Amino acid sequence: MGSVKKAVLVLVKPKEKGEDNRVVDPHPHVNGEAEGKARRRRWMPRVGFSPGGSPPEPPITQPKVGKIPKPLTRSRPTMGTLVVGAEYYDLVATVGKGTFGEVTQGWRRSTGEMVAIKILKNEGHHGRVVKNELRLLQALREVNTEESHVVRFLESFGDGACTYLVFELLEQNLFEFQKRNNFLPLPVRHIRTITAQVLAALVKLKELSIIHADLKPENIMLVDHARYPFRVKLIDFGSASIVTEVCHVKEPYIQSRFYRAPEILLGLPFCEKVDIWSLGCVVAELHLGWPLYPGINEYDQVRYICSTLGLPRGELLCPMERRKYAFSSLDQLAVVNIRPVSYPGQEALAEHCDLCGMVELVKRMLTWDSHERIMPSALPSQCWHSIWQRPSALHHHGVENPPPQ
């Protein structure tokens, strides 16, 4: 992997006041517990079903801060400057904090581009996590990030206490986008666009035997929504791992709870298909405007899953009560509606077919048995569009044969 370049942080006290330091949201790795509680409070009063129809077309709000800001000037205050050999990074603002460190927006003087700098602590367990993430990012450097829809990693350096990971600056994550649009459901055609891109990312990760292990709306970033509507990239490989190194680990603590696969909840062997489960949950959430399985703990999470999928084979779990706002079947995703909306005849038919295709895809992503879960790598990326429109194709492509009983 080579030696890590050394950096020197020069702290700068801002000399000017009143400057507009608004920045676009890059990609912080932030603990989602508090946000999860906020989501539950947000969606519960709005739950409702109506026979037929589809979610209304939400008014899509553009990011409040507009386009990626112009390069820094001397009159713009900074928090400090990172000096790495002949390279200088002016730190503009801290935009996210998490367990292992923080994300700062910076200006790369040599190129004049704005970047996202992930600052990670090296001490103790944090240091091992940093080394693992850096190792996987190095493996991804050879990947065409535009075709594979993963964030572009630029370089890394350290100063002893911290490691600095430099990425391209992206706009905002899907959770922030939902929040700014009052958690209104996305039209199915936009969900399909997003899903195809994330699947392309998972195809590439599978080729490299990498499990992302933390796929959720917060880790799917809009690149530049004004210029490229709903173009997204997958970020944050802090929880990622190589399949062969972790597949036999018992009871790993991975994945955010709302998106945690059954094999992780039940302590079963797992593989990269945990990411497919997470994506299925994300697709449903974008359609509904709230999480499909918003459990307050792991036991509660299993209860929600049982309410839609029934008990796992072998009756590993005892029957559990159903929550007031839990679905009794994934098929109900096709009839859930926030408020009725009318479309012209042809458009209504197309929307209905699109919705049915989405539901069928989600059903193949959300299965108790990971062997029955769809595999993105079994199909070229250009086929996903047709599969979405022809749900029957799912029964012939992309699903592993279950192991003999």
Automatic annotation (TrEMBL):
Keywords: ATP-binding, Kinase, Nucleotide-binding, Serine/threonine-protein kinase, Transferase. Residues 15-37 have a biased composition (Basic and acidic residues). Belongs to the protein kinase superfamily. ATP binds at K118. Residues 15-73 are annotated as: Disordered. Pfam families: Pkinase (PF00069). GO terms for cellular component: cytoplasm; nucleus. One of its GO terms (molecular function) is ATP binding. Transmembrane segments: none annotated. The keyword Nucleotide-binding applies. Coiled coil: none annotated. This is Protein kinase domain-containing protein. The keyword DNA repair does not apply. Residues 89-388 form the Protein kinase domain.
